[in-house]
């Protein structure tokens, strides 16, 4: 009898200690969730109907500000993108997506991970709900990403997905992503979501996209099962990043590009040039492909007529210190993250405006990048929201708009929206703006006398993966510029006069570069940092 009782207790113990079964979900579902990027301060509401059985999907963000409708079937093989342009809803059929390689362009975007290789980790409370959760960890090329998925204990309803790892846009810095699921209906979809809306019956013919993607490819947030039997670095790379190629010829071509990129990075890191580089998901692309897919259209500063107008001339030439940094005086706001919107120009502009407000009023006020993104459609020189612009155009546009609102009153969304500028809530107005000649000493005088400067430069492959140190690369251009940032200081790196630098504030979060900053060589206008320099003047009201 005692033996039977003991056996029963042991059996009960084993049952109680057994891991719960992994949740499994169909390839057809309706879900509503909040997608959060904590480092960017974004909380984006999504409604998704996913139906892989019929190759269709509808992704709706911010209650219709952005919508992607995928209908890859025999009757309507197309993707529609509905966005706000010029303060109206516009539809583009099969728009150019420069952040998706051509071979992946027609794939759907699941928003629930496959838990096949995940490990049960325990129970936790999420949003007041008792959950079981599973975790996954993946380390490739000295980079580790972490994943957790939470499901309600009794129903296995999805509650939360969490990931921290290399960001899904540039692959250049660590980031954090959270999906909080509030509605999940498995094996069902909203059929009305797949009806082509009226605005798409006559889609726009002009496609403005040159950068930026309003819809995150959530599959890039999910881990890829690693092929343990892979016998080459390229096979492991393919497994890690879910790469697939249509033919043996393409496989061999991509493998050759990968090996060449790997060789260049290993050679660079072995030479101790002062900064390091790492492989990432773009390793099977040539840089020409990367440039066409991921960067803003280049500006030829050499031929830019605007740069010869409104030129700033210093009335007095000050004796300049060896090192200068506007951060020490309180003129620079914290590092921000543009997320998946091609809005670097807006962050550059806003940084310069914030510096001017500090100099005029003695306190730092954060202005609204979203105000810039949404409201430059009617400016004299039209901008394209999340698809880029130039800083001088924005200063000109804000003068005509009548001011700029604060970040608090007009928070960042990371997508293009309707213009919500309210003159009664304007935080500042712009009187004028000036361009600065590309003479290094004049730029230093302007930075010292007038405050942080809006600048542009040429991003090359080594810069995308910069993670600190003294950056110089003689392959970047002095005149073909494709990214906008804020110049906040100068100095000699680690006191070495042979390593003079500009101190640059970027908008790729604190996980890129040196806590969001870059020390770029200022020898001979490296990468064009003095080719297009601009700053605004605020009205003193």
Automatic annotation (TrEMBL):
Q: Fetch the Gene3D superfamilies from UniProt.
A: Cysteine proteinases (3.90.70.10)
Please give the superkingdom of this protein's source.
Answer: Eukaryota
UniProt keyword Disulfide bond present: yes
Q: Where is the signal peptide?
A: 1-17
Q: Which residues form the Peptidase C1A papain C-terminal domain?
A: 320-537
Write down the Pfam families for this protein, in alphabetical order: Inhibitor_I29, Peptidase_C1
PANTHER family for the chain = CYSTEINE PROTEASE FAMILY C1-RELATED
The UniProt family comment states: Belongs to the peptidase C1 family.
- The protein's name in its UniProt record: Uncharacterized protein
Q: List the top taxonomic levels of the source.
A: Eukaryota, Metamonada, Anaeramoebidae, Anaeramoeba
């Amino acid at each position: 009898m005692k033996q039977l009782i003991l056996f029963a207790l042991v059996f009960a113990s084993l049952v109680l200690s057994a891991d719960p079964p992994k949740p499994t979900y169909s390839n057809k579902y309706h879900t509503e969730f909040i997608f959060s990027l904590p480092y960017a301060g974004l909380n984006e509401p999504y409604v998704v109907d996913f139906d892989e059985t019929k190759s269709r999907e509808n992704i709706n963000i911010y209650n219709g500000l952005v919508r992607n409708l995928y209908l890859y079937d025999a009757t309507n093989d197309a993707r529609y993108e509905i966005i706000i342009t010029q303060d109206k809803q516009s539809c583009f059929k099969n728009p150019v997506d420069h952040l998706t390689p051509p071979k992946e362009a027609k794939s759907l975007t699941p928003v629930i991970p496959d838990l096949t290789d995940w490990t049960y980790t325990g129970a936790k409370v999420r949003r007041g709900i008792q959950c079981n959760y599973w975790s996954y960890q993946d380390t490739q090329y000295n980079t580790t990403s972490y994943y957790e998925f939470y499901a309600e204990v009794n129903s296995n309803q999805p509650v939360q997905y969490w990931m921290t790892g290399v960001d899904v846009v540039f692959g250049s810095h660590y980031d954090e992503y959270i999906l909080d699921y509030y509605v999940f209906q498995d094996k069902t979809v909203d059929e009305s979501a797949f009806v082509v809306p009226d605005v798409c019956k006559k889609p726009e013919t002009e496609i403005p996209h040159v950068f930026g993607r309003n819809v995150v490819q959530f599959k890039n947030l999910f881990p890829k099962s690693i092929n343990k039997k892979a016998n080459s670095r390229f096979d492991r790379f393919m497994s890690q990043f879910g790469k697939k190629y249509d033919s043996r010829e393409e496989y061999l071509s991509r493998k050759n590009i990968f090996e060449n990129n790997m060789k260049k990075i290993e050679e660079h890191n072995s030479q101790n040039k002062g900064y390091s580089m790492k492989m990432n998901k773009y390793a099977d692309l040539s840089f020409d492909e990367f440039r066409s897919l991921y960067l803003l259209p280049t500006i030829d500063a050499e031929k830019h007529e605007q740069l010869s107008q409104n030129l700033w001339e210093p009335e007095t030439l000050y004796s300049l210190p060896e090192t200068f940094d506007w951060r020490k005086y309180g003129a620079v706001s914290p590092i921000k993250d543009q997320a998946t919107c091609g809005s670097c120009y807006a962050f550059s502009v806003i940084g310069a405006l914030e510096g001017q407000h500090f100099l005029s009023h003695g306190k730092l006020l954060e202005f609204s990048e979203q105000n810039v993104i949404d409201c430059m459609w009617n400016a004299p020189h039209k901008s394209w929201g999340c698809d880029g612009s130039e800083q001088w155009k924005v200063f000109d546009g804000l003068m005509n708009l009548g001011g700029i609102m604060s970040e608090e009153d007009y928070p960042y969304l990371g997508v293009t929206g309707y213009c919500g500028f309210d003159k009664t809530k304007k935080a500042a107005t712009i009187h004028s703006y000036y361009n600065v000649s590309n003479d290094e000493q004049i730029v230093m005088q302007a930075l010292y006398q007038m405050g942080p400067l809006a600048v542009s430069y040429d991003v090359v492959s080594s810069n995308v993966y910069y993670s600190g140190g003294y950056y110089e690369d003689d392959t970047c251009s002095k005149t073909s510029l494709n990214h906008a940032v804020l110049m906040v200081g100068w100095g000699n790196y680690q006191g070495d006069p042979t390593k003079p630098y500009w101190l640059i504030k970027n908008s790729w979060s604190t996980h890129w570069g040196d806590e969001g900053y870059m020390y770029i060589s200022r020898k001979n206008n490296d990468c064009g940092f003095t080719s297009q320099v601009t700053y605004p003047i605020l009205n003193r009201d």
